[in-house]
Amino acid sequence: MKKWIVVIIGIMLFNSVSAENGYDLWLRYKVTDNAVLLQQYRQQITGINCTCSDGKLLAAQQELQQGLTGLLGKNVPLQKLVTNGTVMLGTPAQLPFIKKSVGENTLTGLGDEGYLIRSIRHEGKNIILITGNKEAGILYGAFHFLRLLQMQQPIAQLNISSTPAIKLRLLNHWDNLNRTVERGYAGGSIWDWQRLPGYRDQRYYDYARANASIGINGTVLTNVNANAMILTEPWLQKVAALAAIFRQYNIKVYLTARFSAPVEIGNLKTADPLNEEVRKWWKDKADEIYSIIPDFGGFLVKANSEGQPGPQNYQRTHADGANMLADAVAPHNGIVMWRAFVYSNESPEDRFKQAYNEFKPLDGQFRKNVLVQVKNGPIDFQPREPFHPLFGAMPQTPLMMEYQLTQEYMGFATHLVYEAPLFTEVLNADTHTKPNGSTVAQIIDGTADGHSLSGMAGVSNIGSDINWTGHPFGQANWYTLGRLAWNPALTPAQIANEWIRQTFTNKKAFVDTVQQMMLASREIMVNYMTPLGLHHIMGYGHHYGPAPWYNKAPRADWNPVYFHRADSTGIGFNRTASGSNALAQYQPAVRRQYENIATCPEELLLWFHHVPWDHKMKSGKTLWEEMCEKYYRGVDSVRWMQRSWSRLKNYIDEERFKQIEQLLGIQEQEAVWWRNACLLYFQTFSGKPIPAKYEKPDRTLEYYMELNFPYAPH
Ligand code: BDP
């Protein structure tokens, strides 16, 4: 009887330990489940030595102690004296022996945020040294060290050094002051403005830890469709409370600046950037902000786009607007990130071309502390876009990358889509703007044009859901942003591998299967949503589901029909010289490749060409047959993901297993919806049958066209 009770209690305990809700992200620090390795780790790591009382070093020490204690399954103490197996933290200024042991040159190369992790002999003991010129580097080094253990890597002979390639590694929250999140699918905003500054939620600390662990060093707290109120004193006090928490994790806060703020909250008659009173208002505002938040990062601005106010309201240029703000924050070393996502309400010009047309002529006119933030593609975060033609076109201006982590156009927080392949596809694209290499990565990391300011931002997918991102795999996209901004040369496979091992388990069968799913998932989504270069054919407003037929938006370039241009002769947007000639915005080498239908990559075909339905594709199929093939393959591949996942039940906790299983189920239904709706609609133009070998759509086009979703999140 007693025995049974013990067993039952044991099972209950085991289950409660193993249930996971995803809150811990990739920082789970579970005890190493490889007995041999665990034994080794316990010998190799005996304690932590750190002369740290506050700030980033203290954060590093706390994280190490928490992490190592978890991973080793025993208390890892703080030590005053070093012993064999001490993990020692400190800067060369604190620990003079480091300079001799490591060498000046190595240290110089680390910059302000880089780190070194080395197994060395010190005072006759074998220790592990984690150092950097500044405390921030040590914090990042501590997280790297923990990652090694979480990934069950050997730590006997460590000699690791790392520095970030990109300076500003940022999240952009599209969070409103009422706690709704624009394009947010993971609950409300995590910023509890009402209870700030007095109440400091544990979430803020865990958010900061997660970001620091992947190298993210800045966060824009507020929506680009900005509210001027955030710039008033009571709200700045709330921001200051967050900044105080984040500072310890080397994270600066930034805010979005509403261009009309001087009128809305400053009682001025104008927001003209050349008006002296306006300029003074912003200078005073910046001084006030910095008096409250001394390390405030600066402003992110969306101006004269989608109805937002901007300098053009006063016949001034984007450079005039950006420079005014840049002058205001410059005395405090602040920066301005001015977004290039602009297209005018009036212009009949192809929307693809408008950002380039606006910004290229301004190259050279921006202040030194301005970056122009450019979305990865020319339209708007579509499942696949060609790289934005501005990359490489403004050599005198640091261009910052803007990706979208939140899956506005990629199935919300319901579809499993790993975005790293999308991100790296853009980074690796060659702009051909320099003879010796000018990939997008080289443009944005500043090396192509010798800029010391550089940046990469991701529009956050974080919300108040217990697992932060709604879909457990959304966490991988957040993870990717940080890792890629640190090192744009990492591959999607490397990043996925790291993330899976830390987030779920190191068991090979699980890691291999999930890695395959993740790497394939982006192309799978392209196939069932927008194959062959289709783009912007989703539902109007909320952007949920397919609506290629939609043509009632208040502006032409919000309508799917504007983008796909299907008719009885074919489909696609002619952006060659005989069409909108958007291709002229690329360098000749790129332009020539894309404008020739024979050399244009088929995955981008309908971005640039209006193609006859009978056009012969490389496969030998007609365009119509190929399109059917892609849509059907997309759905089949989701089913393959479902089958793959169903085999993994015994590898992880039931909670997350079931969540993902259910989400894949919805993804399958929605993939079928996309496939059927798009093919039935395009069929009305192609006039051709869906080949008989495929399963028949089980609904009519009318059915799909009548669906409507008044409460879909947007
Ligand atoms: C679009 C979104 C919209 C954003 C806009 C932007 O639909 O909600 O405000 O981009 O980036 O993707 O400014």
UniProtKB/TrEMBL annotation:
PANTHER family, alphabetized: ALPHA-GLUCURONIDASE A
GO CC annotation, single: extracellular region
One GO MF term attached to the UniProt entry: xylan alpha-1,2-glucuronosidase activity
Domain Glycosyl hydrolase family 67 C-terminal: 469-694
Alphabetical UniProt keywords: Carbohydrate metabolism, Glycosidase, Hydrolase, Polysaccharide degradation, Xylan degradation
Quaternary structure annotation from Swiss-Prot or TrEMBL: Homodimer.
Active-site residues, as the UniProt record annotates them: E306 (proton donor), D380 (proton acceptor), E408 (proton acceptor)
E.C. number(s) listed in UniProt: 3.2.1.131
Stretches assigned to the Alpha glucuronidase N-terminal domain: 25-145
Broadest EC class assigned to this enzyme: hydrolase
Catalytic activity: Hydrolysis of (1->2)-alpha-D-(4-O-methyl)glucuronosyl links in the main chain of hardwood xylans
Protein family (similarity comment): Belongs to the glycosyl hydrolase 67 family.
Protein name: Xylan alpha-1,2-glucuronidase
GO BP, one annotated term: xylan catabolic process
InterPro entries: A-glucoronidase_C_sf, GH, Glyco_hydro_67_aGlcAse, Glyco_hydro_67_aGlcAse_N, Glyco_hydro_67_C, Glyco_hydro_67_cat, Hex-like_dom2
Xref: Pfam families: Glyco_hydro_67C, Glyco_hydro_67M, Glyco_hydro_67N
Residue intervals of the Glycosyl hydrolase family 67 catalytic domain: 149-468
